Amino acid sequence: MTTTQVLRAGRRTGPAYGLALPFDLTGAPSARDLANGDWRLDATCRDRDHEWWFAKPTSARSRSAVQLCEGCPVRQQCLAAGLLFGEEFGVWGGLTHIQRRPLIARLLTGVPLATVLATALGEQHVVKFEAA
Ligand code: SF4
User: Fold this and answer.
1) Ligand 1, pocket-test mutation among 40, 48, 92, 96, most atoms within 8 A of CB
2) Domain assignment of residue 81, given as a range
3) Could you say which of 3, 72, 114, 116 is the most buried, measured as most Cβ atoms within 10 Å of its Cβ?
Protein backbone atom coordinates (compact mmCIF):
# COMPACT_ATOMS: atom_id res chain seq x y z
CA MET A 1 0.00 0.00 0.00
CA THR A 2 1.37 3.43 -0.91
CA THR A 3 1.67 6.32 1.54
CA THR A 4 -1.31 8.03 -0.07
CA GLN A 5 -3.42 4.88 0.14
CA VAL A 6 -2.61 4.48 3.83
CA LEU A 7 -3.53 8.10 4.53
CA ARG A 8 -6.78 7.82 2.56
CA ALA A 9 -7.70 4.57 4.32
CA GLY A 10 -7.26 6.34 7.65
CA ARG A 11 -9.46 9.23 6.55
CA ARG A 12 -12.28 6.90 5.54
CA THR A 13 -12.53 5.44 9.02
CA GLY A 14 -12.99 8.70 10.91
CA PRO A 15 -11.55 12.11 11.66
CA ALA A 16 -7.86 12.29 10.79
CA TYR A 17 -6.77 13.95 13.99
CA GLY A 18 -6.67 11.39 16.80
CA LEU A 19 -6.49 8.48 14.37
CA ALA A 20 -2.87 7.43 14.65
CA LEU A 21 -1.13 5.70 11.80
CA PRO A 22 0.53 2.37 12.71
CA PHE A 23 4.05 3.66 13.34
CA ASP A 24 6.64 2.38 15.82
CA LEU A 25 6.47 4.92 18.67
CA THR A 26 9.37 3.55 20.72
CA GLY A 27 11.16 6.53 22.27
CA ALA A 28 8.69 9.00 20.75
CA PRO A 29 5.89 11.03 22.35
CA SER A 30 2.78 8.89 22.89
CA ALA A 31 -0.15 9.13 20.48
CA ARG A 32 -2.37 10.15 23.41
CA ASP A 33 -0.10 13.03 24.44
CA LEU A 34 0.21 14.21 20.85
CA ALA A 35 -3.53 14.02 20.33
CA ASN A 36 -4.51 15.90 23.47
CA GLY A 37 -2.62 18.92 22.20
CA ASP A 38 -1.29 20.28 25.53
CA TRP A 39 2.07 20.72 23.84
CA ARG A 40 0.48 23.45 21.69
CA LEU A 41 0.35 25.75 24.73
CA ASP A 42 4.10 26.34 24.33
CA ALA A 43 4.01 26.70 20.55
CA THR A 44 5.60 29.72 18.91
CA CYS A 45 2.61 29.91 16.56
CA ARG A 46 0.08 29.83 19.37
CA ASP A 47 -1.00 33.47 19.11
CA ARG A 48 -0.20 34.01 15.47
CA ASP A 49 -2.21 33.86 12.29
CA HIS A 50 -2.35 30.15 11.52
CA GLU A 51 -2.96 30.85 7.86
CA TRP A 52 0.79 31.40 7.55
CA TRP A 53 1.29 27.70 8.31
CA PHE A 54 -1.20 26.69 5.64
CA ALA A 55 -0.10 29.14 2.96
CA LYS A 56 1.22 27.95 -0.40
CA PRO A 57 4.60 26.30 0.37
CA THR A 58 6.50 28.61 -2.01
CA SER A 59 4.96 31.80 -0.58
CA ALA A 60 6.70 34.37 1.62
CA ARG A 61 4.21 33.67 4.41
CA SER A 62 5.00 29.97 4.37
CA ARG A 63 8.74 30.68 4.46
CA SER A 64 8.21 33.01 7.43
CA ALA A 65 6.23 30.28 9.19
CA VAL A 66 9.04 27.77 8.62
CA GLN A 67 11.56 30.24 10.08
CA LEU A 68 9.43 30.67 13.20
CA CYS A 69 9.20 26.90 13.58
CA GLU A 70 12.99 26.64 13.78
CA GLY A 71 12.99 28.19 17.25
CA CYS A 72 9.78 26.59 18.49
CA PRO A 73 10.17 24.66 21.78
CA VAL A 74 7.64 22.01 20.73
CA ARG A 75 8.88 21.43 17.22
CA GLN A 76 9.51 17.74 17.91
CA GLN A 77 5.96 17.13 19.15
CA CYS A 78 4.52 19.16 16.30
CA LEU A 79 6.33 17.19 13.62
CA ALA A 80 5.51 13.94 15.41
CA ALA A 81 1.81 14.85 15.45
CA GLY A 82 1.81 15.89 11.81
CA LEU A 83 3.37 12.58 10.82
CA LEU A 84 1.47 10.31 13.18
CA PHE A 85 -1.94 11.71 12.26
CA GLY A 86 -1.16 11.89 8.56
CA GLU A 87 -1.61 15.63 8.18
CA GLU A 88 -1.74 16.23 4.46
CA PHE A 89 -1.55 20.02 4.53
CA GLY A 90 0.34 22.80 6.23
CA VAL A 91 3.70 23.19 7.94
CA TRP A 92 4.23 20.86 10.90
CA GLY A 93 7.46 21.02 12.87
CA GLY A 94 8.90 23.34 10.25
CA LEU A 95 8.36 20.90 7.37
CA THR A 96 5.91 21.30 4.52
CA HIS A 97 3.66 18.44 3.41
CA ILE A 98 6.07 17.81 0.53
CA GLN A 99 9.03 17.53 2.91
CA ARG A 100 7.07 15.17 5.18
CA ARG A 101 6.27 12.65 2.43
CA PRO A 102 9.65 10.86 2.48
CA LEU A 103 9.48 10.75 6.28
CA ILE A 104 6.10 9.02 6.15
CA ALA A 105 7.47 6.60 3.59
CA ARG A 106 10.29 5.69 6.02
CA LEU A 107 7.83 5.28 8.88
CA LEU A 108 5.73 2.92 6.78
CA THR A 109 8.76 0.68 6.31
CA GLY A 110 8.95 0.30 10.11
CA VAL A 111 11.59 2.89 10.99
CA PRO A 112 10.69 4.19 14.49
CA LEU A 113 9.19 7.66 14.73
CA ALA A 114 11.95 8.72 17.16
CA THR A 115 14.60 7.86 14.56
CA VAL A 116 12.79 9.74 11.81
CA LEU A 117 12.39 12.80 14.06
CA ALA A 118 16.08 12.75 15.01
CA THR A 119 17.11 12.54 11.37
CA ALA A 120 14.76 15.34 10.32
CA LEU A 121 15.40 17.74 13.20
CA GLY A 122 18.89 16.76 14.37
CA GLU A 123 19.71 14.63 17.43
CA GLN A 124 20.35 17.70 19.59
CA HIS A 125 16.75 18.91 19.14
CA VAL A 126 15.09 15.61 20.01
CA VAL A 127 14.17 14.44 23.49
CA LYS A 128 13.83 10.68 24.07
CA PHE A 129 10.46 9.74 25.55
CA GLU A 130 9.81 6.79 27.86
CA ALA A 131 7.27 4.21 26.77
CA ALA A 132 3.77 5.11 28.04
S1 SF4 B 1 6.85 23.83 15.12
FE2 SF4 B 1 5.91 25.49 13.96
S3 SF4 B 1 3.83 24.82 13.45
FE4 SF4 B 1 4.61 23.48 15.05
S5 SF4 B 1 3.88 24.33 16.96
FE6 SF4 B 1 5.91 25.19 16.60
S7 SF4 B 1 5.63 27.11 15.48
FE8 SF4 B 1 3.71 25.94 15.38
Assistant:
1) 92
2) 3-125
3) 116
